Amino acid sequence: MCAGLVSRSQDPHDRRNVPLALTDEGGRALSTIYAETEAWLLLSALLVEQEDLERAAIASEGALAVAPGRPDAVLAAA
Asked: pTM for the whole thing?
């Protein structure tokens, strides 16, 4: 299944349930994806202009003021 990245099994108590798990190869692939994504995000953050960072900080402060402690409410208001 999925080029050997995922395995599936059967639940002896519920035939509707099909548990999935990463194989060792799938775990290695996922680790690679995470590492590449982290590197991309770091590089992207280094390329962001200081003015853009300041605008983002101001915007996030405003969003938190609208609904402190409620990220779901902030997303709904967007």
From this structure: 0.53
